[in-house]
């Protein structure tokens, strides 16, 4: 590939730095090419265009760009999960304090694309493949790092050695929480810990694991994502929030796309996602005080 090319990268919808596009950027810069980010006005005047689309709802945006530039190289879970980067780009090292040490997952959650797009879990690197050597913190995007216990121990060992704070950005699988995992978590610098309580059938386990982790003085680090409106009733969604409230935990309601604009689910998110409203009111009281209405729990 000759030097002097102009390359345009389009990050269609990711609010986080896009690892694939960052690899493409690093590769082309190493070739002496000029890289432009998110400047669609330049789409006809560059030599190559790459785009990443994560969410299917934003597919029409990318389709418009493809109409303008049919040779665009596009991928992502919202476009085509089968599109893979060439090996010379995929293997480009990125030490930007942000990335993956594992890919894939052992779970098959019906709402999640990871097993389909990444396959079964495997290690792909460690702290030193991500950390720049000077930053005081790193963000790990691993989808289920606790599913590889030996690897998780090694990552924690490296984090302790370098005194680097970590954000396990995609969350930790509470089903895999053990005394050893809690001990390791308590030995490193944490930003916060994200768990998920997406399945009502996990209530007993969530109660057990909360009791376990609270013996390690980690309460102020963690909260729970609660997926609502996917395959649960509204009553089950309220109940899970109330279980977490009872346990003294913070829920964060994540509305599935089909109910994102539903009034009742908006009320649920307003109540549960604010610490003070959750602590002060139950859901019905919140709705009555805020809007002078009640919500039928059977919807």
N-to-C SSE series? EHEEHEHEEHEEHEHEHEHEHHH
Number of helical stretches of at least 4 residues = 11
Largest sheet: 4 strands, parallel
CATH architecture call of the largest domain: Alpha-Beta Barrel
Give me the secondary-structure topology:
Layout: E1 6-11, H1 19-30, E2 34-37, E3 48-52, H2 59-68, E4 73-75, H3 87-90, E5 98-99, E6 102-103, H4 114-118, E7 122-123, E8 137-140, H5 149-162, E9 165-168, H6 179-186, E10 193-196, H7 203-213, E11 222-228, H8 234-246, E12 251-255, H9 263-272, H10 275-280, H11 283-291
Parallel strand pairs: 1-2, 1-3, 3-4, 5-8, 8-9, 10-11, 11-12
Antiparallel strand pairs: 6-7
How would you describe this structure in keywords?
single chain; about 300 residues; alpha/beta; Rossmann fold; TIM Barrel; four-stranded parallel sheet; three-stranded parallel sheet; 11 helices
What do you see in this structure?
- This protein is α/β, with parallel strands linked by helices and 299 residues long.
- The chain has 2 domains: 6-87, Rossmann fold (3-Layer(aba) Sandwich); 94-291, TIM Barrel.
- The protein contains 11 helices and 12 strands.
- The chain has helices at residues 19-30, 59-68, 87-90, 114-118, 149-162, 179-186, 203-213, 234-246, 263-272, 275-280, 283-291; strands at 6-11, 34-37, 48-52, 73-75, 98-99, 102-103, 122-123, 137-140, 165-168, 193-196, 222-228, 251-255.
- The longest helix is centred in the middle third of the chain and has 14 residues, at 149-162.
- It starts with 5 loop residues before the first strand and ends in an 8-residue tail after the last helix.
């Amino acid at each position: 590939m000759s030097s002097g090319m102009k390359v345009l990268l389009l990050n269609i919808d990711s609010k986080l730095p896009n690892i694939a596009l960052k690899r493409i950027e690093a590769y082309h810069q190493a070739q002496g090419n000029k890289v432009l980010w998110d400047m669609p006005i330049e789409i006809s005047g560059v030599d190559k265009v790459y785009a990443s689309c994560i969410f299917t709802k934003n597919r029409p945006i990318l389709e418009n760009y493809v109409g303008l530039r049919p040779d665009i190289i596009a991928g992502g879970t919202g476009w085509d999960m089968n599109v893979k980067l060439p090996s010379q780009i995929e293997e480009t090292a990125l030490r930007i304090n942000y990335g993956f040490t594992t890919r894939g997952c052992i779970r098959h959650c019906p709402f999640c694309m990871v097993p389909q797009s990444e396959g079964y879990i495997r290690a792909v690197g460690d702290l030193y493949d991500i950390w720049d050597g000077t930053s005081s913190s790193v963000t790990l995007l691993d989808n289920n790092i606790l599913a590889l216990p030996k690897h998780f121990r090694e990552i924690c060992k490296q984090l302790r050695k370098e005194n680097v704070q970590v954000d396990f950005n995609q969350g930790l699988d509470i089903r895999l929480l053990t005394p050893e995992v809690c001990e390791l978590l308590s030995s490193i610098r944490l930003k916060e810990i994200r768990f998920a309580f997406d399945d009502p059938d996990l209530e007993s386990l969530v109660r057990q694991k909360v009791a376990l982790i609270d013996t390690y003085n980690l309460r102020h680090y963690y909260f729970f994502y609660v997926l609502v409106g996917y395959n649960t009733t509204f009553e089950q969604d309220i109940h899970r929030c109330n279980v977490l409230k009872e346990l003294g935990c913070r829920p964060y309601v994540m509305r599935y796309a089909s109910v994102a604009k539903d009034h009742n689910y908006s009320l649920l998110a307003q109540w549960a996602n604010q610490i003070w409203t959750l602590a002060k009111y139950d859901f019905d009281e919140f709705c009555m005080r805020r809007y002078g209405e009640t919500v039928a729990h059977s919807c």
